[in-house]
Amino acid sequence: MRIQTLSPIVALLSVLLIPLVSHAGDIRIGLTEALTGPASQYGVPIQNGFLLARDEINAKGGVNGDKIVLIEEDERGKKEEAINVYKKLIFQDKVLMIFGPTLSNSMFAAGPIANLAKVVAFGTSNTASGITDIGPYIFRSSPMEADVVPVTLRTAIKHLNIHKVGIIYGNDDAFTKSGYDVFRKSLEELHIPVVDTETYAKGDVDFKAQLTKLKAANPDAIICPCLSEEGANILLQSRALGIKQSFIGGNGFNSPKLVEIAKAAAEGTIVGSPWFDGNPSVQNQHFIAAYRKKYGTDPNQFSAQGYDALFIVAEALKKIKLTGQLEQDRQALRDVLPHIQIDGATGKFAFRPAPEHAIKPGGYDANQTPFVYIVKNGKFVLLK
Amino acid sequence: MDWSSWWATYSTLVLSIGVYGLMALSISLTLSCGLLSLANAAFMGIGAYVSAVSTLQYGLSFPSALLLGTLAPSSVALVIGVPVLRLSGVYLAMATLGFGEVVRVVALNLDITGGPLGLNGIPLFTEWWHVLLSVVAVLLLLQALRHSRIGRAFEAIREDETAARLMGIATHRIKLLAFVLGAAIAGLAGGLNAHYTFTLSPGNFGFENAVDILTMAILGGIQGLLGPLLGGAIITLLPELLRSLQEFRMAANGVILIAVVLFLPHGIWAPRRLARWLKKRSKHADA
C-alpha cells in the first residue's frame, strides 16, 4: 500500500530530475561572448558561428558518440563580468573548457582565472599581443594583427607603386591603436616613410580636417587600421575631397558592411584577413550557405572563426578518451589541442606556441596565412 | 555545493560588492553635504592606475600601493576642489563629469598607463579580508564623522548653505573636506579593484561607471550608512542573479531599478521612513 502510493511520486521526481542530471555522454563546453552592449556586434556573430558548428557536429552523431553541449553566457564586454562568468563556468557548471570572451581586454581579465584553474581558455576574436603570455592554458584561433599586417603590406606594395604612405587611425581604442602600432613597425621594417599621421576618436563622424591634411601630404596609399563604421565614413569623405589613393585596412576593414556603406568609394581598398568570403574551398562555401540558411544574413570573419574553433576542439576530443574525471579530462584536452590541424572555413589552421617571455611558459597562437584582397567592382577579390 | 567551490565561483562577486559599497559610500559623503559630484569614478580610476603602476612597474608592496592609490586622488581632489566647489547643483555635476572625461583621455594618452591597451597582468593581491577591513574602517570613520561637529556641518550645509555660513561654518573648507575624503575612499576602492581583476583600461572608469555609482547611492538611500552599502550590493548582484533571464537580463535590471525609485523615493534603506512606519504600527496596536 505504502509502496504503491510512493511509486507515482518517485516516478514524478525522477522525471523532474532528468533535465537536471546531464547525460553521461554530454561534453559540456562554456561559451561566453558579449551578447549585449557595444561589443555585441562581434559577440553575436561569433556565437552564431559556434551554434551552427554545434548543430552540425551533433547532427552527425557528436564526437565519438557524445553530444556537444554549449553553455552560453553573456559577458557584456566588461572585465568583471568576464571574470564572474569564467568562475561560474569553471567551478559551478564544471565545463571541460571555455570559448571566449569577445574582447582582448576581457580575456586579459578572465584568462588568468582559467589558467590558474588549469582549464583551457580559447579565444576566437582576441587579436591583441600578449594574450597568450597569460599562461599555457590560453589558446586563440585569431591571428594577431602582427601576423596579418606584414603580409598585407608586402602584397599591397607588390601590386601598387608605394614609396610613401599616410596613416589615419583611432587612438582611443585598444583594437585600432594596436593595429596602428603593428603597421608602424612593419612600415619601418620595409623602409617605407610615413608622410603624415592623423588620429580620430571612437564615434567621430567628420574626418575632413584630417583627410585634407593627408591629401596635402600626397602619399601613395593611405593606411587605415580602423573599424568598419569609421572606415566606411573615412572612405566616403576622402573620395568627396578628391583623394584617389588606395586605402589599406587592418582586420577591422574586413566586413561586408564596408562595401555596403562606402559603395564605389571602397574601390581599390586592400584588406588582409584570416577569412575570405570568396574563398572557393568546399568547407568555406558550405559554411557560408549553411550560415545564410540558419540566420538569414551573411557571415563575417568572426562567425567563421567561431565556427572553425568548435571543429578544432571536436578534432581534439576525437583523439582523447573522456574518463569523467574532470581534472584529468581538462588536462588531456590541453595536452592534445596544440597538435590539432584542420582545414576549415578560414582555410588551413594550426597552433604555434607563443614566443617565450622570461621563464613563464605561454599559450598557443594561431598559425595561419592571411588572405589579402582588394575591392573591385564592389566585390572582394583575392590578391596574390 | 560545498564552501570552497562556492567561494571559488563567487569570490570576485563578493569582492565587487565590497568595492562598490565603498564607491557608493564615497559618493554619499559628497551627497550628504549637498554636492552632486560625479568625479568619483574618475577618482577610483586614478587610485586604480596609481596603485597598479606601483605594484606592476615599481614592485611596491600592496599596502604601500594602496596608500599611494588613496593619497593620489585625494591630492588631485584638493587641487581641483578649490575652483570646482564654487559651483553647485547641475553645474558642479557638469564640471565633475568633465573632469572624469579628462582623466579618461589622460589615461588613454600616457605611456605609463598603457594607453588604450591599459595595464595587463596586474598581480592578484586583494584578499577578502583586505576588502572587509577597508569597508569596516571606512564605516567607522564615517560614523564617527556623522556624530562630530563636521558631520553636523555637512548636514547644515545640505539643508541651507547660506544659513550654515551665517552660523559661522566655514562652508567652503567643509565642502572641500567632503570632496577630498570621498576621493580618498574612491581611490582605495580603485586600488582594491585593480588587484583582483588583473587588468585596467581607460574605459573602466568612464561616464557609465559614474552613473552606476550614483545609482547605487540613490537606490540604497543616503540617509544612513547602510543604504549605500546595500545599493552597491544590489547593483552588483542584480545582473548575476538575473542571469537565467538571458537576453532580457539588462531590461529586467532596468525595470527593477525604475520600480524601486518610483515606489521608494528615498532609497531602500531610509531610517526616517522606517521610524514613521513603526510609529504608525504602534498607534494601530494601541487602538
Shape of chain A: globular
Share of β-strand residues of chain A? 15-25%
Question: Largest protein interface?
Answer: A-B, 32 and 32 residues
Structural class of chain A: alpha/beta
The proportion of strand residues of chain B reads: under 5%
Relative helix content of chain B:
over 70%
Task: Name the average pLDDT of chain B.
Answer: 91
Q: Could you tell me how far the N terminus lies from the C terminus of chain B, measured between alpha carbons in angstroms?
A: 50 Å
**CATH fold topology of the largest domain in chain A:** Rossmann fold
CA radius of gyration of chain A is: 23 Å
Oligomer: heterodimer
> CATH superfamily of the largest domain in chain A, please?
Response regulator
Spans of chain A of at least 5 consecutive residues whose pLDDT stays below 50 are 10-22
Characterization of the model:
Chain A is α/β, with parallel strands linked by helices and 384 residues long. Helices cover 44% and strands 19% of the residues of chain A. Chain A folds into two domains: 27-143 and 280-368, Rossmann fold, CATH 3.40.50; 146-273, Response regulator (Rossmann fold), CATH 3.40.50. Chain A has helices spanning 2-17, 40-59, 79-92, 104-116, 145-159, 174-189, 208-217, 228-240, 256-262, 282-295, 301-319, 326-336; strands at 27-33, 68-74, 97-99, 120-123, 138-140, 165-170, 194-200, 221-224, 246-249, 270-273, 341-344, 347-353, 364-367, 371-376, 379-382. The termini of chain A are far apart. With 287 residues, chain B is an all-alpha fold. Chain B has one domain (3-239). Chain B is built from twelve helices and two strands. Chain B has helices spanning 3-31, 40-57, 62-84, 89-109, 128-146, 149-159, 161-166, 171-197, 207-220, 226-241, 249-263, 271-286; strands at 119-120, 199-200. In chain B, strands 1-2 form a two-stranded antiparallel ribbon. The longest helix of chain B is centred in the N-terminal third of the chain and has 29 residues, at 3-31. Chain B is globular, with a radius of gyration of 20 Å. The chains are: A alpha/beta (384), B mainly alpha (287). At the A-B interface, helix 3, helix 4 and helix 6 of A face helix 1 and helix 4 of B.
